[in-house]
Design goal:
Number of helices: 10
Number of strands: 7
Oligomer: single chain
Bound molecules: zinc ion
Strand content: 5-15%
Strand order of the largest sheet: 5-7-6
Radius of gyration: 18 Å
Helix content: 25-40%
Shape: globular
Distance between the termini: 21 Å
Largest sheet: 3 strands, antiparallel
């Protein structure tokens, strides 16, 4: 308990300095990543952490979903499931293992409460974000600093013509829809994800490859050998976005704002 308390105190400082820190607990990573959402104080009660939002909603971190089959866990993820698979920042040399999908587990209750349960509620938080590589704008949530983070990504990528060319053609950000083939709302529904039409055949999605949720899917290893895409992914990660190319159920077009997984003290 004391170690966690100390880590919680130090983490904002380490975040600000960009220094690596000892891995924080899942609840602490969530608290630091979404400061607009949580109440200032989080009750730590050992293994049954309860996180409380500013509007008083209570989220039990561990709802004992661990033993559910993979597909059911995707549908019923609690906050613990959401933090369960570590997301490794930086480019990976090898394809993900089967069912290695860091970030695909999402607590529907949490994201709905934070970003909105209806399109109207979501739109109350969404703003047009200037996207320097295209000269246009992207509709994105402003909650928890997401919109300015996306704008910084665009400005950085636009400084190099080679990386700018990779993200010049956005293929959708805010879009009130479900994940294909499921009842789960997409991160696009909450205005917290953006897709790009990648050049050179690098845009790959597992459902386009005829794969199923249960079965293994041949990973398009080519995408891991592209240095410019590597740079694009790194810039996104530095601003709190994860990349769908790190999933066994790959979606290489897709970037989503998930700072609880890629902050310096929370990526593993
Ligand atoms: Zn997407």
């Amino acid at each position: 308990m004391q170690r966690r308390f100390i880590a919680g105190l130090l983490a904002p400082v380490l975040f600000a300095l960009g220094m690596p820190a000892q891995a924080l607990s899942g609840p602490d990573c969530l608290r630091l990543a979404y400061p607009e959402f949580w109440a200032a104080q989080i009750a730590h009660t050992g293994p049954d952490d309860v996180l409380v939002s500013r509007s008083g909603e209570r989220f039990v971190f561990d709802q004992h979903k661990d033993l559910l089959p993979h597909t059911e866990l995707l549908n019923q993820a609690d906050l613990k499931s959401q933090m369960m698979q570590p997301y490794s920042a930086g480019f990976q040399a090898a394809p993900p293992l089967p069912h290695q999908d860091p970030g695909r587990m999402r607590s529907h209750a949490f994201f709905t409460a934070m970003y909105g349960a209806t399109l109207d509620e979501v739109q109350g938080h969404v703003v047009p974000v200037p996207w320097a590589p295209s000269g246009g704008s992207l509709m994105f949530t402003r909650r928890n600093g997401a919109a300015p983070a996306l704008e910084r990504v665009g400005r950085t990528l636009a400084q190099d013509a080679a990386t700018a060319a990779y993200v010049r053609r956005p293929a959708g950000s805010l879009n009130w829809r479900r994940v294909a083939g499921t009842q789960r709302l997409s991160m696009h529904a909450w205005g917290a994800a953006v897709d790009f039409s990648l050049p050179h055949g690098l845009g790959r999605y597992w459902q386009w490859s005829g794969c199923s949720e249960q079965g293994a899917c041949p990973y398009p290893a080519k995408v891991l050998k592209d240095a410019k895409l590597q740079r694009v992914v790194e810039v996104f990660e530095q601003e709190g976005f994860i990349w769908g190319g790190k999933w066994a159920h790959f979606d290489t077009l897709h970037f989503e704002y998930r700072p609880e997984l890629v902050g310096p003290a929370c990526s593993r």
